[in-house]
Amino acid sequence: MKSRIPDGRGSGVLGGTGRAVVRTVPGAPGRGRSGHNGSVTSSDVHRSGFACFVGRPNAGKSTLTNRLVGSKVAITSSKPQTTRHAIRGIVHRPDAQLIIVDTPGLHRPRTLLGKRLNDLVYETWSEVDVVGFCVPADQKVGPGDRFIAEQLKKVSRRTPVLGVVTKTDLVPKEQVAQQLLDLQQVMDFADLVPVSAKDSYQVDVLSDLLVQQLPEGPQLYPDGELTDEPETTLIAELIREAALEGVRDELPHSLAVTIEEMIPREDRDDLIDVHAVVYVERSSQKSIVIGKGGERLRAVGTQARKHIQALLGSKIYLDLHVKVAKDWQRDPRQLRKLGF
Ligand SMILES: Nc1nc2c(ncn2[C@@H]2O[C@H](COP(=O)(O)OP(=O)(O)OP(=O)(O)O)[C@@H](O)[C@H]2O)c(=O)[nH]1
């Protein structure tokens, strides 16, 4: 992965100074590593830096990123492990600019793709200023979470880690409290916070806690910018998200999307032609994606088009092809071609 930090600010300035505006976190037994006491101190300091969320697949990281940024930039799906690209969302605040890198789920590598994804995770952790470790409120803290915690401990001396209990809307309050206690057992956190991206519950508190860990610094991106991912990457992700809806469990890992061409239609200033290819690994998967009489692929196209038009603010014509790239997850050449 290319460095996610644009101006040479590397690990040397990692770790927030923790002197920013701090609010008490209702219901969270946070310890506050920098000795904050819940008081509010006004400050003219501007902070900027990077954060990422880690957690088991489906923990709600992408949804939380979207909620913090306030726009749909990272794809979400009910299928696990759908986030492959470290897409950044940018939170603009008067007192800070927080750039969120959405990392893929960490998992035991079985293929070359799996290994590259894990490498990407470690690289991201060592480059950011703060990590949010997400654990959903409705699932017991388990071996998967402890595995991640063990990995996180290796970087937590340099990079502060916040414990984030997500999806609190799904369970009663007592269960949220218990989950916070259980999570506290797995590692030392800079702070613990319960949130619900669905209800926007405590999302602003989380934003404050993340910002508190950032170093002082100027705005790194212009106002209004939500992500620095190239448009084509976002469009490819939107198509992949649509293609993943309601398909068999093994398919997500075998799907990749490339944008072959994106050109304004001649003589029309309101229409863009987008040509995309959906790659699968086997011809059996190809027929799943296409569906009977092409029905599924049409539905995928319709859904993706809706989101792409919203993203670009322009009408598009979406041309989708499905191709088989045999065993692309194990083939370095193909991986490169598909952008991994
Ligand atoms: N009820 C509820 N559901 C949520 C919340 N946040 C996320 N979800 C759902 O949980 C599922 C997974 O959310 P994602 O944001 O895609 O999870 P992720 O951790 O990014 O998943 P990967 O990309 O697989 O690592 C989706 O179906 C979301 O709609 C929440 O606050 N409340």
From TrEMBL:
Topological relation to the membrane, as annotated: Peripheral membrane protein
InterPro entries attached to this UniProt entry: G_ERA_dom, GTP-bd, GTPase_Era-like, KH_dom-like_a/b, KH_dom_type_2, KH_sf_prok-type, P-loop_NTPase, Small_GTP-bd
Localization per Swiss-Prot or TrEMBL: Cytoplasm; Cell membrane
Gly residues: compositionally biased ranges: 9-18
Chain positions covered by the region annotation G5: 195-197
Alphabetic keyword roster: Cell membrane, Cytoplasm, GTP-binding, Membrane, Nucleotide-binding, Ribosome biogenesis, RNA-binding, rRNA-binding
Gene Ontology terms for molecular function: GTP binding; GTPase activity; ribosomal small subunit binding; small ribosomal subunit rRNA binding
Residue ranges constituting the Era-type G domain according to the UniProt record: 47-216
Chain positions covered by the region annotation G4: 166-169
Gene3D superfamilies reported in the protein's UniProt record: 3.30.300.20, P-loop containing nucleotide triphosphate hydrolases (3.40.50.300)
Domain KH type-2, first and last residues per copy: 247-326
Binding-site positions, GTP: 55-62, 102-106, 166-169
Xref: PANTHER family: GTPASE ERA (PTHR42698), GTPASE ERA, MITOCHONDRIAL (PTHR42698:SF1)
Function: An essential GTPase that binds both GDP and GTP, with rapid nucleotide exchange. Plays a role in 16S rRNA processing and 30S ribosomal subunit biogenesis and possibly also in cell cycle regulation and energy metabolism.
Similarity-based family: Belongs to the TRAFAC class TrmE-Era-EngA-EngB-Septin-like GTPase superfamily. Era GTPase family.
Official protein name in the record: GTPase Era
Origin species: Saccharopolyspora kobensis
